[in-house]
Amino acid sequence: MKDKVKLYDKEINKKAEGIKALVMMLVIFIIGFITGSYAVNMELQKANDEKQEHIVELEKLLEEKQVKINEQFIEIDALKETVYMLEVYGK
Q: HSE on the CB side for 19, CA within 13 Å?
């Protein structure tokens, strides 16, 4: 009878060790998955922030160029007016 109990205990211990190993692997996998997801999200956020900064810089550059273009249009209008006045009234 004692031999059956020892064999039964060995089987129970073997199953318990297997279950412990499985639970430990699941816990490690879940922790790794959560950590990996967090890291990927942080990288995506960082890339998105860099893109946003680049967009802001481009908008500032575009605004500066537009100001220059507007100034050039004013100068062209002034020159057209000068040429017209010279044509009409002569030298």
A: 6
SS3 content of the chain, % helix, strand, coil (to 5): 95, 0, 5
How big is the CA angle at 48 (ends 43 and 54), to the nearest 5 degrees? 130
Provide the token pair at 33. 């998955």
Q: Whole-prediction pTM value?
A: 0.56
Q: Residue 7 and residue 15: Cα distance in Å, rounded?
A: 12
Q: Does the pLDDT of residue 3 top 70, yes or no?
A: no
For residue 21 the two structure tokens come to 């190993």
Cα separation, 31 vs 39, in Å, equals 12
Tell me the average pLDDT of the chain.
Answer: 91
